[in-house]
Design brief:
single chain; mainly alpha; 18 helices
Length: 444
């Protein structure tokens, strides 16, 4: 099995095998998102950019349960492979893929009917609501294939196919950029084309990703049978932190967008959206590093290689994007603006300077949360996610907005990350001592 490389490779080679392809995959995925936002903002104006940003909280909620099942099941699959239980791993994989497909179809249907009430809830104007409805239709129609695409990365990585996953994401990113250029720049189509091109690309990516599974060339394959309800609830519980982060992030964006609409109008929402597009590159580098190590950590933990778990974890280095956002961010903002939209440029540059300080401490919580999830410690990971995604941001948002207005809304991310970093260290250190250090001495 290719997954046995997780225990045979030396730690430096394991890092190169896992982290480099995973990070490249995440960066490639973020690049088309960044350029997609540039096309929308530059050729359609900040109203269209704001409409797309207003729809992402709803899309985030629809994708959240799929992320929960995919991430939670990948942890169990890796542990089963570490125990040489290939049939259990394959049964878990097969069952979860079909659950994801069924849920995605229902989610797409619900998303179509909930779009208009959602836009009314956030206070969108008539024109913005119309643009938002045009944007989301493609996602609703192609939801089963689009949502499965994000799960395929986890399943390919647990089978040791990091490079295949990397090149697949590079291909989908480049193909999406080509379609964006054709539909938006050359044909000058509306906002619907931005989501249509993405959905076509991701659907194609899903079909390509599952091809080797269908040909039975992977460590897991499609088999008949179901898993126990207790096992399914366990993997959902382990992945519920991803669900909580997605749903809470969507709730936060819902409240923040409503505040920004009242404080600065659609231009404020669009400026924040541009910053989040730029931020997606930096955050995906960090998330790519952490998520790429999940299969190796889970496999070694399932194989009782506790000293190796400790050795791998020691390589989780901090990635700070503070200088990137402070220096390059203000230079990129104008590419999201229509010609002559100086108000948007000024507001976007101010927003990105404030937002940049998120990365001063944000990497701590991301790394330690990934460690807890990979080693099947859902209770601690859940508590950390609950505080990071829900209990901290909303009270801080209300407080900072009251004290500093629009600048306070934009600074909420940085303040939340600082508090969450302290909490994550407090939750992880006892687990490290009890689960790892007490069984085998840490390697020198």
């Amino acid at each position: 099995m290719r997954s046995e490389l997780f225990e045979r490779l030396s730690i430096p080679k394991l890092m190169a095998h896992c982290v480099l392809p995973g990070t490249v995959s995440m960066v490639a995925s973020s690049l088309y998102i960044v350029v997609d936002g540039m096309f929308v903002g530059h050729y359609m104006g900040h109203d269209s950019l704001a409409a797309a940003n207003l729809m992402w909280p709803l899309l985030g909620i629809l994708f959240a349960i799929a992320d929960m099942i995919a991430y939670g099941s990948s942890v169990q699959i890796s542990m089963f492979l570490g125990r040489r239980s290939r049939l259990s791993a394959s049964r878990t994989f097969s069952f979860c893929v079909w659950v994801l497909f069924g849920f995605s179809a229902v989610a797409g249907l619900l998303g179509y009917f909930l779009t208009e009430p959602f836009l009314m809830l956030v206070g969108a104007g008539e024109d913005t609501a119309r643009l938002g409805k045009e944007y989301i239709i493609s996602y609703c129609v192609s939801a089963p294939l689009v949502m499965l695409f994000f799960a395929t990365d986890s399943y390919l990585r647990v089978c040791g196919r990091q490079k295949f996953s990397m090149w697949l994401r590079v291909f989908t990113s480049l193909f999406n950029l080509l379609l964006d250029y054709i539909f938006i720049v050359l044909l000058r189509q509306g906002i619907w084309s931005a989501s249509f091109t993405t959905c076509v690309t991701l659907s194609l990516g899903t079909l390509i990703a599952f091809y080797p599974f269908l040909r039975r060339r992977m460590d897991v394959e499609f088999v008949r049978g179901r898993i126990r309800f207790k096992q399914f609830t366990r993997l959902c519980y382990n992945g519920v932190t991803e669900l909580l982060q997605s749903v809470s992030g969507s709730v936060f964006m819902l409240v923040a967008n409503t505040m920004m609409l009242s404080l600065g109008g659609t231009v404020a929402v669009a400026a924040h959206a541009a910053v989040l597009y730029i931020d997606s590159v930096a955050i995906r580098v960090l998330m790519g590093t952490v998520n790429s190590l999940q299969p190796a950590l889970s496999y070694c933990y399932g194989a009782a290689l506790y000293a190796r778990v400790a050795a791998v974890e020691k390589w989780l280095l901090s990635l700070c994007a503070l200088l990137f956002l402070l220096t390059a961010g203000p230079l990129i903002i104008p590419y999201y603006a229509a010609d002559g939209d100086e108000e948007f440029i000024i507001m976007g540059r101010r927003c990105i300077v404030i937002f940049a300080f998120t990365y001063l401490t944000g990497w701590v919580e991301i790394c330690l949360h990934g460690f807890l999830t990979a080693l099947d410690s859902p209770s601690r990971a859940f508590v950390l996610s609950l505080c990071r995604a829900l209990l901290l941001p909303l009270p801080l948002l209300l407080l900072l907005k009251h004290c500093y207005g629009l600048d306070g809304v934009w600074s909420t991310h940085a303040v939340t990350c600082a508090v969450a970093a302290l909490l994550s260290v407090a939750l992880t250190l006892p687990f490290w001592r009890n689960k790892i250090s007490s069984r085998l001495p840490l390697p020198s």
